[in-house]
Amino acid sequence: MLFTVSLREVAATVFLFVWVIFVAVFLTRMLYGLMVGRGFQHNVAVYYNRKIIHIFTGGLVASLVPCIFETPIFPLAMAFLLAVFLYLPHRRGRLMYWFQVRENAYEVSFCVMWGIIITLGWLVSGGNFWFGVLPVLFMSVGDALTGIVRNTIYKRRTKAWVGNLAMAAFSIPVGAVVLGLAGALAGAVASFVEHFESNPIDDNITVPLFAFLVLVVVKLYAPWLLSPLDSLPF
Asked: Alpha-carbon dihedral of residues 108, 113, 119, 125, nearest 10 degrees?
């Protein structure tokens, strides 16, 4: 495969990078102040912010990748630059308190997996970005819904199954629309796997990884299941 660089892709990468920084550094800091001012506990506001970042950076940008980029070079580079940007506050002991926590650096693994899975999906599928974008959407949007539902109900970080049901309600139909029965199966597996984690292996690693592996297995042994539902012969 020939890797090419276009001015359009460079400009889009810069714009999307700036957007992510804006959401993480400025928008969620403002939202944190608003939430705390309305009586939200610190940990609740932080957790909401983390999920807002999930959706409006990871999810939004991932959904734009197939429309903008020809290769995963720039998305991968952007993901790793953001991973470094988010790791440095942990290293220096100066956290962005409105969404980062001392207990873990899961937002760093989020960026790393975002870039790796999108790149591997493009490579394995022969140039179909959605093969990697779909597992990333499960991690970005599906997992965010689990956190929003749980945070609303329990006001703390928990792995209650009600969150997984919310994730499945998003991931299974979206998976079916994008990659057919294989996508729906990957969404179901991702929604189940999200319930389990063992530090430092968090759900930002397991969710996209297991979903991606499901798609790879299907591609190898039952590739007809990767067709969108409306194109299947039954």
From this structure: -170
Report whether pLDDT(2) > 90.
no
What domain range is 93 assigned to? 7-231
Domain count, the chain: 1
Residues in the chain: 234
H or E element that contains 204: helix 203-221
Q: Is residue 1 part of a domain?
A: no
pTM above 0.85, yes or no: yes
DSSP-derived 3-state class of residue 64:
helix
Q: Return the number of other C-beta atoms located less than 10 Å from residue 27's C-beta.
A: 18
Estimate the share of the chain in helix, then strand, then coil, as percent rounded to the nearest 5.
Answer: 80, 0, 20
Residue 117 lies in a domain: yes
d(CA 187, CA 209): 12
CB-neighbour burial class of residue 232 (10 A; exposed 0-12, middle 13-18, buried 19+): exposed
> For the chain, what is the mean pLDDT?
93
d(CA 189, CA 217): 13
